[in-house]
Amino acid sequence: MDLYGYFRSSASYRVRIGLNLKGLSYNYLPVNLLKGDQHGEHYRSLNPQGLLPTLNDGDTSLTQSMAILEWLEETHPEPALLPKDTEARAHIRALAQSIASDIQPLQNLRVLKYLVSEFKITEEQKIQWIQHWIHLGFTALEQQLKFAPFAAGDTPGLFECCLLPQVYNAERFGMDMNQYPKIQKIAEACNELPAFIEAHPERQPDSTV
């Protein structure tokens, strides 16, 4: 499998975690968002949206991180990213989507660039924007989580694939994670596991940190 990604892309990060949790090997192919590689002809031929990540497996080419994670779950069911109980599965999907659909997109690079270029917001205002949406989302998540030590029980899965990249962003933009003790405990437990350690942005070959 080939994974096109960028070291700080939250969507790429969550797919790296999912691949690692499944024990699947892959070739990592960097696409530099800051240099505009995502707009190049070659990458646009793979992903017309010009977004990350893209996963290629033989003749199969997939985009959108949540769709990729669901595909991994269906094609490589063990170890599972979702619990077996249907209600529990829906709950975990809702928690994951609260990050992937509601929190993270508002910090997407193209959104931030638009705010700066069209509305002339300052760097301070940009940080306030990011922190506001993270805080709103994390506050709601705190009320929904039952620490055990992971969202679905004894093993990490789909939710943690989404959570850790968002925690990384929160810390990067100066958030006080002590405000969110359940999230912090889950993140700490994940960061002890090889699947998460190896997926960390600063361990990727294209990292500039």
Explain what you see:
The chain is an alpha+beta fold. The chain is built from 9 helices and 4 strands. It has a 4-stranded mixed sheet with strand order 2-1-3-4, covered by helices on one side. Strand 1, helix 1 and strand 2 form a beta-alpha-beta unit. Helix 1 packs parallel to helix 3, helix 1 packs across helix 7 and helix 4 packs parallel to helix 7. The radius of gyration is 17 Å and the shape is globular. The mean pLDDT is 97.
Helix content: 40-55%
* pLDDT < 50 runs, ≥5 residues: none
* Shape by Cα distribution: globular
The residue-averaged pLDDT reads 97
Order of helices and strands: EHEHEEHHHHHHH
Portion in strands: 5-15%
Quaternary structure:
single chain
Structural class: alpha+beta
- Largest sheet: spatial strand order: 2-1-3-4
Q: State the end-to-end distance.
A: 26 Å
**What's the total count of β strands?**
4
Write down the Rg.
17 Å
Largest sheet: 4 strands, mixed
Quickly count the helices. Answer: 9
Summary?
It is built from nine helices and four strands.
Which key terms come to mind for this protein?
209 residues; alpha+beta; four-stranded mixed beta sheet; 9 helices; 54% helix
What's the structural blueprint in terms of helices and strands?
Blueprint: E1 2-5, H1 10-22, E2 27-30, H2 41-46, E3 54-57, E4 60-63, H3 65-75, H4 86-103, H5 109-119, H6 123-144, H7 158-172, H8 181-190, H9 194-199
Parallel strand pairs: 1-2
Antiparallel strand pairs: 1-3, 3-4
Helix pairs in contact: 1-3, 1-7, 4-6, 4-7, 7-8
